[in-house]
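pinned: reference chain
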Amino acid sequence: MILLYLILIGAAMAQNEPRPPVGSSPAQPLPFSHRAHVSIGLKCVECHQTAATANAAGMPSVDFCMRCHVAVRKDSPAIATLAQHQKDRKAVEWVRLYRLPDFVYFSHRRHHTKAQIACAACHGEVAAQSVLLKEKSIAMPACQACHDARKANNNCDACHDPHPG
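pinned: its structure tokens
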């Protein structure tokens, strides 16, 4: 009986949209424009290098950013802060827009490489955004609807670990 109760509570929690809500743009530690970076020819996977190979898409290191910014806009206060982060060997603590509960499994590799789903399908037209917004819901019904539309596995164990911890 207790197990059934815990399963029902977990299912109810999974229906809620993980924070932040869709359409929001939480304050970030540094200004960053995807539009500006895409306009010079950068591709998603150049900065988010593990999107095609791992569960998480990853964030570029400060060293990666400073390869260009050692010369590009180096006098901007934001780049000065970035350079200080590099000097201090400190990562930028970006505020995540998409964070699933610990009991949910998601693989960027599987979706990007195997299923050939474009980044924009979930993240919206990031290339046109100066300020990144949470574009799509990552609540369970939204994921299930996408799986249904693509005739993908919608079994519980496709996304939920039956033996957590």
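why pinned: The chain has a mean pLDDT of 87. Residues 156 and 162 are 8 Å apart (CA to CA).
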